[in-house]
Specification:
Elements: H1 3-19, E1 34-35, H2 36-45, H3 52-61, E2 67-69, E3 75-78, E4 99-104, H4 108-114, E5 124-126, H5 130-138, E6 143-148, H6 150-155, E7 161-162, E8 168-170, E9 178-179
Antiparallel strand pairs: 1-3, 2-3, 4-6, 5-8, 6-9, 7-8
Helix pairs in contact: 1-3
Bound molecules: ligand HQG.
Length: about 180
Protein backbone atom coordinates (compact mmCIF):
# COMPACT_ATOMS: atom_id res chain seq x y z
CA UNK A 1 0.00 0.00 0.00
CA UNK A 2 1.48 3.36 -0.92
CA UNK A 3 1.43 6.51 1.18
CA UNK A 4 -1.37 8.11 -0.78
CA UNK A 5 -3.66 5.11 -0.27
CA UNK A 6 -2.78 5.00 3.40
CA UNK A 7 -3.59 8.69 3.86
CA UNK A 8 -6.90 8.23 2.06
CA UNK A 9 -7.85 5.26 4.26
CA UNK A 10 -6.74 7.17 7.37
CA UNK A 11 -8.91 10.16 6.46
CA UNK A 12 -11.93 7.94 5.89
CA UNK A 13 -11.35 6.18 9.21
CA UNK A 14 -11.05 9.52 11.02
CA UNK A 15 -14.32 10.63 9.51
CA UNK A 16 -16.12 7.43 10.51
CA UNK A 17 -14.61 7.03 13.98
CA UNK A 18 -14.78 10.69 15.03
CA UNK A 19 -17.67 12.26 13.22
CA UNK A 20 -19.92 10.05 11.16
CA UNK A 21 -19.98 6.34 12.13
CA UNK A 22 -23.18 5.94 10.10
CA UNK A 23 -21.07 6.31 6.92
CA UNK A 24 -19.87 2.75 7.54
CA UNK A 25 -23.15 1.63 9.14
CA UNK A 26 -21.58 1.73 12.61
CA UNK A 27 -22.52 2.88 16.06
CA UNK A 28 -19.77 3.72 18.52
CA UNK A 29 -20.10 2.63 22.12
CA UNK A 30 -19.99 5.19 24.95
CA UNK A 31 -16.18 5.15 24.95
CA UNK A 32 -15.92 5.54 21.19
CA UNK A 33 -15.13 1.93 20.27
CA UNK A 34 -16.39 0.10 17.17
CA UNK A 35 -15.95 -3.58 16.34
CA UNK A 36 -13.19 -4.22 13.80
CA UNK A 37 -15.33 -6.84 11.99
CA UNK A 38 -18.27 -4.44 11.84
CA UNK A 39 -16.02 -1.70 10.53
CA UNK A 40 -14.59 -3.88 7.76
CA UNK A 41 -18.07 -5.10 6.77
CA UNK A 42 -19.49 -1.58 6.93
CA UNK A 43 -16.70 -0.21 4.74
CA UNK A 44 -17.23 -2.98 2.19
CA UNK A 45 -20.97 -2.28 2.11
CA UNK A 46 -20.24 1.44 1.67
CA UNK A 47 -18.01 0.65 -1.30
CA UNK A 48 -14.75 1.54 0.51
CA UNK A 49 -11.91 -0.95 0.00
CA UNK A 50 -10.34 -1.58 3.38
CA UNK A 51 -8.72 -4.92 4.18
CA UNK A 52 -7.73 -6.09 7.62
CA UNK A 53 -4.06 -5.68 6.60
CA UNK A 54 -4.62 -2.10 5.44
CA UNK A 55 -6.39 -1.30 8.68
CA UNK A 56 -3.51 -2.70 10.73
CA UNK A 57 -1.06 -0.66 8.64
CA UNK A 58 -3.04 2.53 9.06
CA UNK A 59 -3.27 2.08 12.82
CA UNK A 60 0.38 1.07 13.20
CA UNK A 61 1.95 3.59 10.85
CA UNK A 62 -0.18 6.60 11.62
CA UNK A 63 2.15 9.52 12.29
CA UNK A 64 0.03 10.85 15.12
CA UNK A 65 -1.34 7.58 16.49
CA UNK A 66 -4.84 8.79 15.75
CA UNK A 67 -6.33 5.32 16.20
CA UNK A 68 -5.99 2.61 18.80
CA UNK A 69 -6.92 -1.06 18.80
CA UNK A 70 -8.20 -2.75 21.95
CA UNK A 71 -5.66 -5.12 23.56
CA UNK A 72 -7.39 -8.16 21.99
CA UNK A 73 -7.50 -6.47 18.58
CA UNK A 74 -11.27 -6.80 18.15
CA UNK A 75 -12.18 -3.13 18.63
CA UNK A 76 -10.88 0.19 17.30
CA UNK A 77 -11.38 3.85 18.19
CA UNK A 78 -10.01 7.30 17.45
CA UNK A 79 -7.84 8.64 20.27
CA UNK A 80 -9.27 12.17 20.17
CA UNK A 81 -10.85 14.77 17.90
CA UNK A 82 -14.47 13.54 18.05
CA UNK A 83 -17.51 15.63 17.33
CA UNK A 84 -19.87 12.76 18.27
CA UNK A 85 -20.55 12.41 21.96
CA UNK A 86 -18.07 9.94 23.50
CA UNK A 87 -16.29 9.69 26.82
CA UNK A 88 -12.74 8.66 26.04
CA UNK A 89 -11.96 8.13 29.70
CA UNK A 90 -8.68 10.06 29.83
CA UNK A 91 -8.00 10.81 33.49
CA UNK A 92 -7.48 14.39 34.65
CA UNK A 93 -3.74 15.15 34.74
CA UNK A 94 -1.50 17.93 35.97
CA UNK A 95 -0.31 19.84 32.89
CA UNK A 96 3.13 21.38 32.41
CA UNK A 97 3.42 25.08 33.28
CA UNK A 98 3.08 26.05 29.61
CA UNK A 99 1.21 24.43 26.74
CA UNK A 100 0.89 25.72 23.18
CA UNK A 101 -1.84 26.24 20.61
CA UNK A 102 -1.27 26.72 16.90
CA UNK A 103 -3.73 28.88 15.03
CA UNK A 104 -3.76 31.55 12.30
CA UNK A 105 -3.89 35.34 12.38
CA UNK A 106 -7.46 35.70 11.15
CA UNK A 107 -8.78 34.00 14.33
CA UNK A 108 -6.79 36.18 16.74
CA UNK A 109 -9.34 38.97 17.29
CA UNK A 110 -12.03 36.44 18.27
CA UNK A 111 -9.57 34.43 20.37
CA UNK A 112 -8.40 37.59 22.18
CA UNK A 113 -12.02 38.47 22.97
CA UNK A 114 -13.43 35.09 23.97
CA UNK A 115 -10.40 32.84 24.51
CA UNK A 116 -9.93 29.43 22.88
CA UNK A 117 -13.14 27.50 22.35
CA UNK A 118 -13.47 23.87 21.20
CA UNK A 119 -15.39 24.90 18.05
CA UNK A 120 -16.62 21.63 16.45
CA UNK A 121 -14.67 19.33 18.76
CA UNK A 122 -15.23 18.35 22.38
CA UNK A 123 -12.19 20.12 23.72
CA UNK A 124 -9.54 22.66 22.90
CA UNK A 125 -6.42 20.77 21.72
CA UNK A 126 -3.07 21.91 23.09
CA UNK A 127 0.45 20.75 22.29
CA UNK A 128 3.32 20.23 24.72
CA UNK A 129 5.85 21.87 22.36
CA UNK A 130 5.82 24.86 20.03
CA UNK A 131 6.92 22.84 16.99
CA UNK A 132 3.83 20.61 17.12
CA UNK A 133 1.61 23.65 17.68
CA UNK A 134 3.20 25.33 14.66
CA UNK A 135 2.33 22.31 12.51
CA UNK A 136 -1.27 22.33 13.76
CA UNK A 137 -1.61 26.04 12.92
CA UNK A 138 0.05 25.56 9.51
CA UNK A 139 -2.94 23.42 8.38
CA UNK A 140 -4.80 26.70 7.95
CA UNK A 141 -2.16 29.17 6.77
CA UNK A 142 0.82 30.99 8.25
CA UNK A 143 0.90 29.61 11.78
CA UNK A 144 0.69 31.70 14.93
CA UNK A 145 1.61 29.93 18.18
CA UNK A 146 -0.07 31.01 21.40
CA UNK A 147 1.19 29.99 24.81
CA UNK A 148 -1.29 28.84 27.42
CA UNK A 149 -0.55 29.32 31.14
CA UNK A 150 -1.68 25.76 31.85
CA UNK A 151 -0.10 25.57 35.32
CA UNK A 152 -1.97 28.69 36.41
CA UNK A 153 -5.22 27.42 34.85
CA UNK A 154 -4.83 24.11 36.66
CA UNK A 155 -4.19 25.91 39.95
CA UNK A 156 -7.38 27.88 39.29
CA UNK A 157 -9.39 24.65 38.93
CA UNK A 158 -9.49 24.00 35.17
CA UNK A 159 -9.38 20.29 34.35
CA UNK A 160 -6.76 19.03 31.87
CA UNK A 161 -6.55 15.60 30.29
CA UNK A 162 -3.82 14.11 28.14
CA UNK A 163 -4.58 11.57 25.41
CA UNK A 164 -2.67 8.40 24.62
CA UNK A 165 -0.74 10.30 21.96
CA UNK A 166 0.27 13.32 24.00
CA UNK A 167 -2.41 15.85 23.01
CA UNK A 168 -3.62 17.95 25.97
CA UNK A 169 -7.36 18.62 26.20
CA UNK A 170 -9.23 21.31 28.13
CA UNK A 171 -12.81 22.56 27.81
CA UNK A 172 -11.81 26.15 27.01
CA UNK A 173 -9.00 28.66 27.61
CA UNK A 174 -10.17 32.08 28.86
CA UNK A 175 -8.21 34.98 27.32
CA UNK A 176 -6.38 35.89 30.53
CA UNK A 177 -4.32 32.69 30.27
CA UNK A 178 -3.14 33.31 26.70
CA UNK A 179 0.11 34.84 25.57
CA UNK A 180 2.32 35.04 22.49
CA UNK A 181 5.21 32.60 22.22
C1 LIG B 1 -9.68 28.19 16.31
C2 LIG B 1 -5.55 17.92 14.14
C3 LIG B 1 -12.23 31.75 16.53
C4 LIG B 1 -8.51 27.33 16.67
C5 LIG B 1 -4.46 18.82 14.63
C6 LIG B 1 -8.43 26.42 15.45
C7 LIG B 1 -4.75 18.95 16.12
C8 LIG B 1 -11.10 29.93 17.36
C9 LIG B 1 -9.88 26.27 15.02
C10 LIG B 1 -6.23 18.72 16.19
C11 LIG B 1 -11.52 30.24 18.66
C12 LIG B 1 -10.49 24.95 15.44
C13 LIG B 1 -6.98 19.96 16.61
C14 LIG B 1 -12.34 31.37 18.85
C15 LIG B 1 -10.30 28.48 18.76
N1 LIG B 1 -12.66 32.09 17.76
N2 LIG B 1 -11.45 30.67 16.29
N3 LIG B 1 -12.78 31.73 20.06
N4 LIG B 1 -11.01 29.31 19.51
N5 LIG B 1 -10.34 28.84 17.45
O1 LIG B 1 -9.33 21.69 13.87
O2 LIG B 1 -6.56 22.87 17.40
O3 LIG B 1 -5.05 15.64 12.15
O4 LIG B 1 -11.05 22.00 15.72
O5 LIG B 1 -7.34 28.09 16.86
O6 LIG B 1 -3.19 18.33 14.34
O7 LIG B 1 -6.69 23.34 14.87
O8 LIG B 1 -7.30 15.76 13.19
O9 LIG B 1 -8.67 22.47 16.20
O10 LIG B 1 -7.69 27.00 14.42
O11 LIG B 1 -4.07 18.03 16.90
O12 LIG B 1 -5.57 14.22 14.13
O13 LIG B 1 -10.60 27.31 15.67
O14 LIG B 1 -6.65 18.33 14.88
O15 LIG B 1 -5.29 16.59 14.38
O16 LIG B 1 -9.94 23.96 14.61
O17 LIG B 1 -6.69 21.03 15.72
P1 LIG B 1 -9.81 22.45 15.05
P2 LIG B 1 -7.09 22.53 16.05
P3 LIG B 1 -5.84 15.48 13.40
Amino acid sequence: MNTKERVRASKFLARVLRHDPGLAGLRLDAQGWAGVEDLLTGCRDAGIRLSRETLAEVVGNNDKKRFALSPDGTRIRAQQGHSVDVDLGWEPSVPPELLHHGTVGRFLPAIAAEGLRPMNRHDVHLSPDTETARRVGARRGTPVVLSVAAGRMHADGHVFRVTGNGVWLVAAVPPEYLGGS
